[in-house]
Amino acid sequence: MKGAACFLIFILAAAVAHARVESEAEAAGLRGPVRSVTTETTKFSRDKQQFEEGIRQVTEQVSFNLLGMMTEKIDSLGHQRFDHWYYKDGKLAGRTNLSNGSEYVYAYEKGKITKYFMTGRFGQLISRDVLSFDDDNRLVSLEYTCYTRRGCLGAVPKVVTFKYDGRGRLIEEVHHEVGGKPSRNMYGVHRYSTQYLDDETKEVSAIRPDGTLISKARYKFDKKGYLREFIQFGSSLSSIAKTVYLDRDRHGNWTKCSSFKILQNEGKTIEEPTENKYRTITYY
């Protein structure tokens, strides 16, 4: 469930970023002129029944430039550095991963990114993405194609289509192959379905190609639109995990959140703490 939920957040953030040509900081949900974000975690000790607050582990460090584009990232995957270049009109032209030599190159139509290509260290094409928009400038499809080192198709090209309600809110994301055959994303999900329960709550379901439910997530927001609570449900629709966002800084970015594992014991629901996350955010 966690992987599917993370993938959903990633694909939606990417879609919005390309549709609106946002900065990478904005696509990550950050507000204000963010310079760096350092994330630390502390685990809950079941023996002591308390958080090991004196033992914090740095899990991620990210830096951004003045335009909100990521310049450096340190996490479990290693240390990555990025460089960006721009067209004469100021639009982002591409990004280079200085750590492995891969590049993203962007193409525009009517001010929106409609194509982007990923190339490897030696210039070989790795992937191509084509984006389409409706008359209201909403992203309606994203077709992506992967290639082998010899330039051949690595797999059948796939398409992600997006549907919106009358208020312009995303209600469905469907993954299929070119030609219409249902396909799975890397987490086995064929379709994400979003239901808005009210103005402050929505549920997102992850569904397999055969129509069975994989998982569901419920998002609760406060009156300012900030995410307040995130609950994960299993295929049986019983809640299995919860994250609560506790503190925010003056820009509205969260600085502390707590995660819980939800257990059922003799008909009672027990929320067992698992970890706290802290973010130290600096600004220009």
**Tally of alpha and pi helices:** 2
Strand coverage percent: over 45%
Q: How does the helix and strand content classify structurally?
A: mainly beta
How would you describe the shape?
globular
Could you give the distance between the termini? 36 Å
State mean pLDDT (0 to 100 scale).
89
What letter string, H or E per element, gives the SSE order? HHEEEEEEEEEEEEEEEEEEE
Helix content: under 10%
Q: Roughly how many Å is the radius of gyration?
A: 20 Å
Low-pLDDT segments: 1-21
Could you give the count of β-strands? 19
Concise overview:
The protein is mainly beta.
Topology, please?
Elements: H1 2-20, H2 24-27, E1 34-45, E2 50-51, E3 57-64, E4 70-75, E5 78-86, E6 92-97, E7 103-109, E8 112-119, E9 125-133, E10 139-146, E11 158-164, E12 170-177, E13 191-198, E14 201-207, E15 213-221, E16 227-233, E17 239-248, E18 254-265, E19 268-283
Antiparallel strand pairs: 1-2, 1-3, 1-19, 3-4, 4-5, 5-6, 6-7, 7-8, 8-9, 9-10, 10-11, 11-12, 12-13, 13-14, 14-15, 15-16, 16-17, 17-18, 18-19
